[in-house]
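Before our next group meeting I need something from you. Please put the record directly below this note.
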Amino acid sequence: MQYKHQHSNKLILILTTYLCCLPLFACNSQQQVSQENQILSAQSQTAETQPLLLSQTSPQDDTYFLDNQIWGEAGDKENLLKAIDYSLSYLQTPQAQAVYQKYIVADITRERVEKSLKRFRELVVNSQNAQELQDAVNKEFVFYKSIGSDDRGTILFTGYYKPIYQASRKPTAEYRYPVYRLPDDFNTWSKPHPTRLELEGADALQADKGKLKGLELFWLKSRIDAFIAQVQGSAVLEFSDGTTTSINYAANTDHEYVSLGKELIKDGKLEQEGISLEKVINYLEQNPQSQNQYLPRNPRFIFFKDTKNAPAIGSLNVPVTPERSIATDKSLMPPGALAIIRAPFPFIDGDKIEQRLVSRYVLDQDTGGAIKSPGRVDYYIGVGKQAGDRAGAIVNKGELYYLLLKD
């Protein structure tokens, strides 16, 4: 559902356990830390599962994970509490019970995740500032660190958001590009599924000749808008009569996601340095003849459902919360769990975007087609153009930790 880079999925999950915070270091170059002990846990459930490597260290810096935004932004504390409650509701579902029965890290159970969320919620409510909260978390919680993409904890962060587009309930000369509902017979489609090119044609206007005929939900002005709605997995649609609705991911065809940014870089159309969603969109808009060439290179096709102005829903079937929800590889990471991320993220300062190194408590509530391996995280920014500007500027390296109460 996101604009992403792909990584190898060869690694099963290995987590590094920290009893407290690490020393301060540059996010792109992790320093070695002293280890009091290492425990190899052969908790593999299949022949392919790797052993779980646990490392413990003593407290180094009590301020390393300070999340100052909880008390610094109006309404953000309430957003964090709401996101916690969404995860708690998910953990009561049969889906959660089934997932955690098979989860590959034996120490991370549904009951422990639930207990940890409830205690963390109490700490957020009762703490007066970021330092007080962090002191309590350092004392009561264990930090499980993802090994990342390099076995050293390096995570590549990208961002996603919910765009707002002008739309029509009927096709017109101005509104020509549909978004589509899920076919009733989708489960019977033979595999491999048709590609994007086969479904809608090179110009995205040939869908009425094939399997998509009659599945149109709404029509958008721009082909790129319809494509980006698929990439992001949701959108708000505004109609000329002043009404609105929202669409959300329903399903996708069985093809790997292909990043248009990577394709444009490969062909020498854009530079790797400073690549962003905005630059990709600008190139395609300024070179409209290229759209027939590049948009079909992503063969994955997304179907939507009309969610009647509901918030964006993640893969756990609970709403995702701006700056408090992340998407990870759910074959590896614990769904609904409390995490903390530390990385540079973009902020708007006047007419420019600047990157600031921050820590954020987040809930793991979503996934995405390009989010593979323990080294990838997608960070949900919010709704609208400003959120899109920020989300498109996130291609940063950082760290990911999961927090659970000590036994």
In short: The first helix runs from residue 69 to 72. Residues 2-59 have pLDDT under 50 and may be disordered. The chain has eleven helices and 16 strands. The two ends are 36 Å apart (CA to CA).
